[in-house]
Amino acid sequence: MSEEDKELISEENEELAENAEGLAPLDAEDPEGSEVAEDAEDEFDGEEEEEVEFDLEDQVETFRAQIEEDPDNCVHHYNLGEALAELGQSEEAQESFEQALLLDKEQTFSSIIHFGIGNLYYHQLMSGIQSTVVKSSVGLHSAHKVGGTICSVNDEDYATPLREFEASLRDLPSLQADEEITEYISQNVPQQMATVYYKWGSDLLDKARQIDKYGDEVKDIKQGLKHLKKTIDIDPNHTQANLMVKYGKKMLQEGFSIYDEYGFVAKEIPGAG
Q: Which of 21, 207, 248, 255 makes an SS bond possible with 150, Cβ 3.0 to 4.6 Å?
């Protein structure tokens, strides 16, 4: 693998670190729009407006109060979920989102609620906090690094956010929100799905290159290529996915050797020839 190829693959780490911007809270009174803070009035003519500090914890309390007053309104539960997610309280956020789904009988907001749930799982996956997946080691294919390789890939960690994103797109036509929110979801969901498929595929290729021989190296590469091709189906110009497909095919055809930290061959996987 050329130095240029390695450099292209390593750039993926930076892309995976980027988080999607949050959406503004929905307005329960006006579902066609979103809640937007009003501009502060000038106290004196010609004086610049004073910037108002945004307090997420205060927003949480506001949404909780709205739920107390109107507990069957799914929008309040969704807004609370988004605020809790921003605060990093993932479990409580998910509970709020799930409650919002239960209350959304007409599925008028289910698209954005599924999007919120999908984002929770997405960020967990990308930050590598699952018990079965080590933080992504994509781009480390050229050498073994202790503690830096994928040793186990749990399919559900990747499949779960994908299911939520698919549900978000499925319910998008019935979403009662303004055009900006609809456009945001329609543009961002496919890109996040492409990223999940890319991480899934590249993690499997990485797993195939761990030092221990476990017998499924070739199977992992073949499955990884399927996920990488789904990335390309969504984003044909995904540079890293195209490169990884090329690299994976070469591994299957020519075989590959894994070296330990001392430079000795730890295992060899034969190719198809």
A: 207
Q: What are the angstrom distances between the C-alpha of 182 and each of 16, 91, 105, 162, 189?
A: 24, 26, 20, 19, 11
In the structure encoding, which two tokens stand for residue 83, read together? 């605020």
Q: Quick check: 168 and 104 in contact, CB under 8 A? A: no
- Checking if the pLDDT of 9 tops 90, the result is no
Structural domains in the chain plus CATH codes: 55-105 (1.25.40.10)
Q: Calculate ∠ Cα 112-67-108, nearest 5°.
A: 30
Q: Produce one character per residue of 166-193: b if its CB has 16 or more CB atoms within 10 Å, e if not.
A: ebbbebbeebbbbeebbebbeebbeebb
pTM value surpassing 0.90: no
What pLDDT was estimated at residue 57? 87
Supply the pLDDT for residue 131. 34
Which residues, 6 or more positions from 252, have their beta carbon under 8 angstroms from its beta carbon? 218, 221, 222, 271, 272
